[in-house]
Amino acid sequence: MSVKSEEFFIQLENSVRNFDVDAATEVAQRALEAGVDPVEAIEKGLSKALKQVGQRFERGELFIVHLISAAEAMKAAISVFEPKILEGKMKRKALGRIVIGTVKGDIHDIGKNLVSVMLTAGGFEVYDLGKDVPAASFIEKAREVGADVIGASALLTTSMPAQKELADAISESGLKTEYIVGGAPVNEGWAREINAHYAADATSAVGLVKRLIGVEG
């Protein structure tokens, strides 16, 4: 790794820690022009910073808005790197692949976004389908990317049945993937009832995913 690359890694790290989308985009573009390996830039700059932000959140030093803002900065830089990565068929080394979303009939996504951010910070490749996602879309994406885990959030009692619908769809699909659920009205008992795993919050979700797919740390 060259000194020049290290300088870009530090700048990318700072852009995420400072929640600066414009800086993240600009540094990523300059890094590409300078010939920096985009995969290394993600792993040694962006991911490193997001992990630090996540740790500060866990210590109560930052709030949800900071996590979301840091994730937006990271996403902005990755969008610059992605075409080059795909062009060279380079693969970012990830601990596992996660498909996540808020279930059909529910448009709340702050909690789901937080889990997505924390999983990304934890080193996972996260495919966030957004909100109001039907079961079929979870299955389709999981099959497409070879997901290790599907995560479904429900913030309304009325949308909890959609988590059960997804559990049934996963069972019927034949996919070899773990299933985790969470959300304000969800609890351990409900998760067991629908044959899923329960994550109470974003931090526990990361630990749960690691245990389910056998990742240490």
Given the helix and strand composition, which structural class is it?
Answer: alpha/beta
Question: N-to-C terminal Cα separation, in Å?
Answer: 26 Å
CATH architecture of the largest domain: 3-Layer(aba) Sandwich
Q: Report the β-strand fraction as a percent range.
A: 5-15%
Give the name of the CATH superfamily of the largest domain: Cobalamin-binding domain
Whole-number mean pLDDT: 91
Number of helices: 9
- Work out the count of structural domains: 2
**What do we call the CATH topology of the largest domain?**
Rossmann fold
Rg, nearest Å = 18 Å
Features:
217 residues, alpha/beta, Methyltransferase, Methionine Synthase (B12-binding Domains), Chain A, domain 1, Rossmann fold, 2 domains, five-stranded parallel beta sheet, 9 helices, 59% helix, globular
Describe what you observe in this structure.
It is a single chain. The protein has two domains: 3-87, Methionine synthase domain (Methyltransferase, Methionine Synthase (B12-binding Domains), Chain A, domain 1), CATH 1.10.1240.10; 97-213, 3-Layer(aba) Sandwich (Rossmann fold), CATH 3.40.50.280. Helix content is 59%, strand content 10%. The chain has nine helices and five strands. The chain has a five-stranded parallel β-sheet with strand order 2-1-3-4-5, with helices on both faces. Helix 2 (21-33) runs parallel beside helix 4 (64-87) and helix 3 (38-58) packs antiparallel against helix 4 (64-87). The radius of gyration is 18 Å and the shape is globular.
